[in-house]
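Session log. Operator J.P. requested a structure for one protein chain; no other inputs attached. Running the standard single-chain path with token output.
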Amino acid sequence: MSDPAKTPDGEHHAFIGAAKLIAACTMLSRVLGLVRDIMMATFFGAAAVSDAFFTAWKIPNLFRRLFGEGAVSSALVPTFTASIKTRSDEQTRKLFSVTFTAMFLLLGALTLLIEGVVNGLLWWGEFTPRTTLLLQYLAILMPYMVLICLSAFLMAVLNAYKHFFAPAMMPVVLNVVWIGGLYLIMLLVGDQAAGGRWLSIVILIGGGLQLLFQVPFAMRRGLRLRPSTDFSDPEFRRILRLWVPVVIGSAVVQVNALVDHGLAYFVVPYTGAPTFLHYGNRLMHLPIALIGVAISTAVLPTLSEHAAGEEPEKFKRSLIAALRVTLFLAMPAGIGLMATSRPLVEVIFRHGAFTSTAAGRTAWVVFCYALGIWAHTGVFVLLRAFYAVRDTRTPLRVALVMVLLNLALNLTLIWFLAEAGLALATSISGMAQFVVLWVILRKRLGRLGGRDVAHSSLKTLAMSLVMGAAAAAAWHYLWPEDAWIGVRVGVLAGIILGAMGVFAAGAALLRMSELRQILRLRRQ
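Structure written below.
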């Protein structure tokens, strides 16, 4: 197995360079997202209004992940990549128009249906104030699904053209609008329930701007948002054949995520459980987005090209290179998040209406989520290998099994750990999914270099544990519990930077090729 850092054809440099751009934009988005979450926790705290808002927000986000993001990318990127390489520009433009039209019609009809049900319940139903508030927020937020899914469509097409900047900036646009709107709400609206309604309207505006932001970049490539109903295009039908299994697979996963939130909302006998789960999930997804989403998004076009060109060795080299770098970054990120979960939550969320008790419960959720970060990021990469060869049915079958496992773990662990048990169940299911997907790929593709991945991962794990122990000891002995927030931020930053230094020194001492590869790309 060749060292990916020394591969002469430069293919790994190409996808990691794109991943760096995506990660940089994602980092900006996540920093803004943390600012947004701080403001949300300060204004709403962890009570009935925040529980209702985050539960309502979960619904359009479920459909966003169902019809947008991964499902759209997995079906569109390989197909559009092949179309760009093998068909004329005019045929690719027609494929773009007919796919955009089909998505708009489907999403519009689905939104009208859900809006009809929700508004009918509000008009004729009698519910508790808590449920009424949830339905009001949901009625405002549902059109966001159309906007974000069409934005995800543009994102996938631009990625097929190997343009990554505009799609990666989409969350930045939403966060800027969200922060600005929330700031005005905090100044002008004193009532939390009314503030949630105004914030829902602000989010709709942000969704529209996310869509419009990408349009000029699409137009530069000759693409136009023109309606077309030529659904007989064979490539469009190919997209449907790829897309439907992924949607079903995403559906079971997202319904399971909604069940997690529902269990936190209705079963955990404490107010605030959905809020703690939401904030813990937000912190977990920071390293997942920076590492797993960035690398997997960047490597999918490369894998698709090798699959289309029938280059199995290059395909495997790109896959393993992406996986090794992913695990090299994800393992220390997860262990570091576990070691610093309490001070992170204290610094980020414990302001205004967010109490010390709420911070402690959120920290346990973060700890349990962080256990599975390495697996979730690795799954992102492995799934792209299936999608690149246009196999969306195998991930569907695996997802169905994992949903059943996760549900069983949820119903078991929630009685012992409350909302933290739901987070732990998610981590265990992620680990199982990683193992199953790897075994299937190994059987289909032959030798993948598993020993190299395992050897590299063991060294990474060892250094991550040393780093985590150092971070935990620093927190225990140095953390100024009641100091001014600026002092605590400085101490936390010092702990994190020190932990990163410990890991980097250990990786250099062990002469890990992933570190050399990343440093070489940074110098370039």
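Operator note: The chain is about 85% helix and 0% strand.
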